[in-house]
Amino acid sequence: MTSQETGFGPILGVRTRVVLRIPPLLHVQVLWRAIDPNREWRFFPVFRTIRVATRCRSSMIPKIICKLLMLLLLVSLNARTDDNEQAMHELDARKALVAQVITSFDTGDYAGLEQLADHLRTTQARFPTGVWKLTVFYQAFDEYAGSDNRDESYWYKLKQRTTEWIEQFPESPTPLVAHGMILDSYAWVTSGASAGQEHPELRDRMLLAKIFLEKNKNIAENDPHWYTLAVRMATVLRWDAERFDKLLEDAFTRYPDYYQTWFAAVEHYSPTWGGDAASVETFARHAIQKTQTIEGFGMYARIYWAVEPHFDAALADTAIQLDDFSRGVNDVLKRYPVRWNVNNFARLACDAQDRELTKALFALMSEGPDQRAWYWTDFERCFRWVNEPPA
Predict the structure, then answer these.
(1) CATH classification code of 105-237
(2) What is the pTM assigned to this prediction?
């Protein structure tokens, strides 16, 4: 069964659900346990409620139960304060926003989505790590679309939903970018292509998506995520250097500190897409020049965080400059000194074989390591390495 057939979406990873002929309230409990079998979110029950509520449409839960769960969802989300968000794990805070967006889209609340997106754009709201909330707003449409349904009728209906949204708000960039996200997901999922692969179907479908973006640029580029999508699509379409550089110049002149466009761009220079470590380093240094007045050297460190999964080798074997990376980490932590950033930068510093920086970051882990940032073998290896006596 696909994620749509089971009634679970892609936020947490699909788990097959067995439909049982049991009382409604017990049915909800069974769904909760199927969603969260390891009770990973036992301290975050609201999100489990969100998880069930957003998939009511394709389950056997009676409508009255769905409505009650939806009411609980909306009350809990509206009551959430910045202090609560600070206390949440970064990933849980992101998932809560994804769930809020999915719920509004699922129920056709386009006005609510417009209000939320406009607020996130105008305030440039961020999570405690510094990540723009607008980025996660749009990632919700990737999550909603899923990654395993290649049925054309499913995608037709999904595209009809965003088209309906565009018709209701024709002067807004939000539904245009959301529609672009759906077209991007459609190209990847239905072609079955992998990142970096030359794939005719992926190219053809991505070309149609890029044509849509360009056709609506005058309105849609008022949202920074339009450029993120444009960069992603240009990478797939293998634009030449001159054309790609022009796109980046436009993007970073208009939105220099919108992180996600930088992260999309560095993939273009990564080994995944035919680049190399030297190209990544050149781009990272360009990022310093474009953002130093805002971010210091912070964008340099964030770019290596984003591109690290695209290297086959350890960061120590790339062209990373440890002094610049250390300065970047310090600049990020001055503004966003949260546990998620500290742990991830410690992991990266260890991978880059910067013992001094790794040790300094370990000293900041007063609550111990964040297991969601580390592969445990990496943490244990790094801990031993940073504490072993000098040779």
Answers:
(1) 1.25.40
(2) 0.79
